[in-house]
Amino acid sequence: MIKGRIFSGMQPSGRFHLGNYMGALDNWIKLQNEYECFFSIVDLHSLTSSYDNTSLLQSNVMEMAVDWLSAGLDPEKNVVFIQSHVKEHAELFLLLSMMTPLSWLERVPTYKDKLQQLGSQGKDINTYGFLGYPVLMAADIMLYKATCVPVGEDQAAHLELTREIVRRFNYLYKKEVFPEPQAVYSKAKILPGIDGRKMSKSYGNTIPFGAGPEEVKEKVRMMLTDPKRIKRTDKGNPDVCTVYTFHKIFNPENSVEIGAKCRAAEIGCVDCKKCLAEKMNHLLADIHVKREELLNKPAYIKEVLEYGAQRARQVASANMEEIREAMNVL
Ligand code: AMP
Ligand code: TRP
Q: Where is the motif 'HIGH' region annotated in this sequence (predicted)?
């Protein structure tokens, strides 16, 4: 039985990494069997912070589609599409912007944080569009009347705002047009990067999702281990070791044994890393082959995305009619 309708999106902002895969995409792939799902490459969202250089936008969008499909997201089961291909996103964004109080947007915690963070990197995002980022996200979700939204905890405040906009809309126009969407948090842990901090593009510590066997080996070789374990004969503390964290995630059946061997100095870091890289490459091998294959089929990817857009448009245009009617914008 279908449990409800999901909408989720991801910004095509550069190379997709294993953190995105383990933290978000892997969860979507599980949800695709339980819910009716709309998954969107939200290119308009990426314009809110990268409006000044769009030269890589098209290639990033295509690459994200390839990453999703190679990981096993099924474009028949799910509606997989590019946000800007369905113009209703822009229309609903405009209508919702009329009724969203400025103070709600100014108090979203990610707003000031990101303004500051990007500002210190010399990027000016003091724009109308950036302030409106969460309204565009609300429009995405509401356009399909989604009931569930799988997101990372970093998106919790945005989803709460969507719920407030839903309540305000339904109250103002005296009609229960929209359901209040619920967050579906992934059980996945935050994946650390090779330096032990959260894996993130902005830290430069990622393992790209499309990394081949050699690149994975190299990244694992660079991973931070227990800094107090200097000689092979020193006993290690796996709890502070990034390689061990990865073993727990990618090699769970052997991780207890590896941890014990590390503590007893029965395995060295070089061998431990070799074992991890082999395990990761084994798990990622099929995905990697599929990905290389799809990268050579741009026409097929375009077709899949156009098919998704057509299906999305059907739902979006019907809902948009009802929304305009509720607002008397006829
Ligand atoms: P971002 O690339 O930061 O926009 O994140 C896109 C999605 O991937 C969000 O749902 C994040 O929660 C998830 N994500 C990003 N980095 C990690 C990570 N290191 N571990 C787990 N999930 C992550
Ligand atoms: N803001 C989300 C992120 O950066 C991406 C996103 C856009 C989204 N629209 C959405 C997520 C709608 C869930 C639902 O991760």
A: 12-20
Sheet harboring 36-41: ordered strands across? 79-82, 36-41, 5-10, 148-151, 182-185
- What is the per-residue pLDDT for 153? 82
Beta bridge partners of 150: 184
pTM for this one? Answer: 0.93
> Is 231 among the catalytic positions?
no
Whether 198 sits among the annotated catalytic residues: the reply is yes
Decide if pLDDT at 159 tops 90. Answer: yes
Cα(82) to centroid(ligand 2), Å = 13
Longest Cα–Cα distance of the chain, Å, equals 77
Per-residue pLDDT, 152: 83
- Ligand 1 probe mutation, 13, 17, 20, most atoms within 8 A of CB: 20
pLDDT for 113 equals 87
pLDDT in tens, 173-211: 999 999 999 999 877 778 999 999 999 988 899 999 989
Distances, alpha carbon 26 to alpha carbons 18, 32, 183, 186, 229, in Å: 10, 10, 16, 9, 34
The sign of the CA dihedral 282, 286, 291, 296 is positive
Query: Catalytic site residue 273?
Result: no
The band of 275, judged by pLDDT with boundaries at 50, 70 and 90, is: very high
Give the model's pLDDT for residue 316.
Answer: 98
